[in-house]
Design brief:
The complex is a heterodimer of chains A (227) and B (180). Chain A has 227 residues and is mainly α. Chain A is built from 8 helices and no strands. With 180 residues, chain B is mainly alpha-helical. In chain B, strands 1-2 form a two-stranded antiparallel sheet. Classes of the chains: A mainly alpha (227), B mainly alpha (180).
């Protein structure tokens, strides 16, 4: 275990350097959008104005998750460094899991956190009215990893047939939409009991689905031919 | 591949499921584009509300073709609206397609392996046609050869026939082999 720590640190440092352009881009875009909303001299109050920039932040966040998942493996494949990476004296599962955890943590930090914090800030500075962005942010926080994991699986898995490489990504986008809608159904005013059951279901199914995708990723990582 | 590193059935089922959902997404996009293109042509056709509901039901079958996805959508809708008829022809057709997919899955799995055929058939029964596509895409399909002993089709990624265990004949030497 002690011998693996320096290797894991090196691996994390490599991943950090490779994802740095994406991290900087995400922070810049989020900072620009939030800063514009908070410090602008708009006729509306800033708390209400943040509602108008929130969809842009949401889409940027989804795109970032997608790019991060694809970039982590496609870069290795394009440069032909997969075998070099896998020949390190680390278990393959540990190596892939470390990269996954790092990517997921970065997604949480630069995707989910700004969305949630801006929604909470807008609620705190509002006239007692709940912003529509708050339930969206909370529902998104339960499911945001699906896109990242789907993109990671797509980039790791070689295609078996024409055009099938990106099927895992498309499948995870479908699951993401379904679970996000399920989570958002907690806001339906006329069906409060049923809708909260659905919201609870989304919060249960979301992590379970993400765990299942991690299983599939580890399976592909173990069985694929890296030549 | 050692026993401990052999991929578990659960991880393969998950991979096949996500591939099937991806195939369904591609199919849905294609159908959506066709509908968008056909919309100007269908503008002059007058439909009453019953026809529209009937068409929407068939569209669900065409779009998803999967009993579990259809059940999830119906459950979601029925919680907020009136419950549809439980044995509508659309549901029967979807279940029939799922049974066809399950039979095909079972036959293929039996041809390529001796185990897990029932598990894969159940998988296809739940996911329907997308499940069958996911099953077809989730693994490699080795070449098959007829066994000289039992005359059954057996995958050639092993040394002996899958069905009777008779070793496959070794290839004829070409005279350029190196024996260590």
């Amino acid at each position: 275990m002690l011998n693996t720590l320096p290797m894991l640190k090196s691996l994390l440092w490599k991943e950090f350097r490779e994802l740095l352009p994406l991290i900087i881009a995400a922070i810049l875009v989020d900072g620009l959008l939030i800063g514009n909303a908070v410090f602008s001299r708009h006729s509306m109050t800033a708390a209400v104005y943040i509602e108008t920039v929130w969809p842009a932040m949401f889409i940027t966040s989804l795109l970032y998750s997608l790019a991060a998942g694809l970039f982590q493996n496609l870069r290795e494949e394009q440069q032909g460094t997969f075998l070099f990476l896998l020949h390190r004296p680390l278990a393959r599962d540990l190596l892939i899991a470390t990269r996954l955890i790092y990517g997921a943590a970065i997604c949480a930090l630069v995707c989910a956190a700004p969305l949630l914090l801006s929604a909470l800030w807008a609620d705190a500075h509002n006239d007692g009215r709940l912003h529509w962005i708050t339930p969206w942010s909370v529902a998104y926080c339960g499911q945001f990893l699906l896109i990242y994991l789907g993109a990671f699986l797509s980039s790791l898995r070689p295609a078996r047939a024409l055009g099938s490489r990106y099927f895992p990504l498309l499948g995870s986008i479908l699951l993401f939409i379904f679970l996000l809608m399920l989570g958002l159904s907690g806001e339906a005013p006329d069906y409060r009991y049923v809708s909260w059951v659905f919201a609870l279901l989304a919060w249960t199914l979301g992590p379970f689905t993400q765990l299942a995708l991690v299983l599939a990723i580890l399976h592909v990582a173990r069985t694929r031919d890296y030549q | 591949m050692t026993e401990s590193s052999r991929p578990t059935l659960a991880s393969r089922l998950v991979l096949a499921a996500i591939l099937g959902l991806g195939a369904m997404a591609v199919w849905d996009i294609a159908v959506g584009l066709i509908f968008a293109a056909a919309q100007p042509l269908a503008r002059d056709i007058a439909l009453n509300s019953n026809d529209t509901r009937e068409l929407a039901g068939w569209l669900m079958v065409v779009l998803f073709g999967s009993p579990s996805v259809l059940a999830a959508i119906l459950l979601y809708n029925s919680a907020f609206q009136a419950m549809p008829a439980p044995w509508s022809p659309q549901i029967v057709v979807t279940c029939a397609l799922a049974i066809v997919a399950a039979v095909q899955c079972y036959r293929l799995q039996r041809r390529y392996s001796n185990d897990e055929a029932v598990a894969w058939a159940m998988f296809a029964l739940l996911l329907g046609l997308p499940g069958l596509v996911g099953y077809l895409l989730h693994r490699r399909w080795p070449a098959t050869e007829y066994c000289a002993n039992c005359r059954k089709n057996s995958p050639r990624d092993r040394d002996a026939c899958l069905h009777c265990g008779t070793p496959f004949p070794t290839p004829a030497p070409k005279g350029i082999e190196i024996f260590a």
